[in-house]
Structures are given as C-alpha cells and as structure tokens.
Amino acid sequence: MSTPHxxxxxxxxxxxxxxxxxxxxxxYLAEHYLENVRQVNGVRGMLGFTxxxxxxxxxxxxxxxxxxxxxxxxxxxxxxxxxxxIIRIGSAGSIHKDVHIxxxxxxxxxxxxxxxxxxxxxxxxxxxxxxxxxxxxxxxCAKAKNVHYHVGNILSSDLFYHADVETNKRWQNMxxxxxxxxxxxxxxxxxxxxxxxxTLLTVSDSLVNDEPDTTAExxxxxxxxxxxxxxxxA
Length: 234
What we know:
- Belongs to the PNP/UDP phosphorylase family.
- By secondary structure, the protein is α/β, with parallel strands linked by helices.
- The chain has helices at 23-33, 67-80, 132-144, 167-172, 183-193, 216-221, 224-233, and strands at 16-19, 35-41, 48-53, 56-61, 85-94, 104-112, 128-129, 149-156, 178-180, 196-206.
- The chain has one domain: Nucleoside phosphorylase domain (Rossmann fold, 3-Layer(aba) Sandwich).
- Strand 2 (35-41) and strand 3 form a beta hairpin.
C-alpha cells in the first residue's frame, strides 16, 4: 500500500530503517554498503532503498529537512510499513566546546523550540528520549570501533536562520551538545506509536570552536563512522 509520499509496497521496507536527511546520503550508503539493493521509493526525490548488510535486511531512506518532513515519513514507515526501528543518521552543529568536527553524537534526548508535541494535548512538557536499547548498542559499537563519541541532549530547532543570534548560547548554557532539526519529532512519533528511535549525528560545523566546516560532499560521503555504527546495530 503506497501513501501520498511513498510509492513502496507493503513488505518493501525492513524492520529497521536508517534515515539521513539528505536522500543522496541514503543513495551513497545503499550503493556502498548494501548487497542485493533495490530502490523502493522515489516520490519527491526522497530516495528509499532496501538490501542486506552482513546478511541482515536493512532499509535506508531520506527524511528531508525539518520536523514536519521527518514527522511525515517516520509516521508512515511506522504505521503503514510495519517498521519497528528508525535510526536517524544526520549532521549537527556543535554548541559544546568539547564536541569537535567529525565527532559522533549519540542523542539520549532532544530539546526543542518547536510546538510539534502540541498535538498530543499533554498537560505539560514532553521530554523526547531515544530508545535506550538502541542507544546502548550504539555506544558499545562506538567503543569497539574506537570512535570519538558523546552521549547527551541535543537541540532540534525549527529554525536554521534564527533572528535571535544569542539563542544557541542559552541552549549551550544548559549543556546541550549540538543542534539539528529533526530528532524531537522522530522521538515523539516513536513514543506515541510504541516504536523505537535513535539519532546518530556527525558534527559538521562548530558554533563555539574555530574549526573549518565540512563541505556538502564530505557530509554526503565521508561521515562513515556514524553510518557504520548504524548499520551494525540495525
């Protein structure tokens, strides 16, 4: 059964889907790591693939930018395609002085400036957390691969260009590790539907340290530590 945003049929997706924001990163990952790979979605250019990694079926699909986009795709994957686990593999800007370019962030939870959770009509503020089961596996894999990683809270923002230039400093004061634009919605959606989600991020630029930014091509093709951790735990 297809949806307005996904032409795949029931059974085309594995139980675990890796979701980079960039569909070209999904394509690169599928072509370089999966065997017997086939494209299962191309609607709106949001490429999705399914294949095997070390004999295990895995799917990879782009999520697009921002919480509305990943909110749509994750909801449909969970509800229409029987997906159980979504692992976001994205990039982030560091807002912590000890988190450097190309470090991996394993998100324990996500704070936000978004109103995404208003739909649940909760009598308070929801703390959006990742799956501890997936998080523990990712940490153990990062240790085994000797990857420089950090575990903690991140910011999922609705705004890339913020009118308040001091906003990141206030989040930095709360000990957050980095800023991106999707994970809060993913974690909320998984929690609401009784599914599992995790976010792995590679630091592409720093808002607090004087370090050179990575290029678009580097973000697409060279964030392999994060990609390989996600594949190993899928």
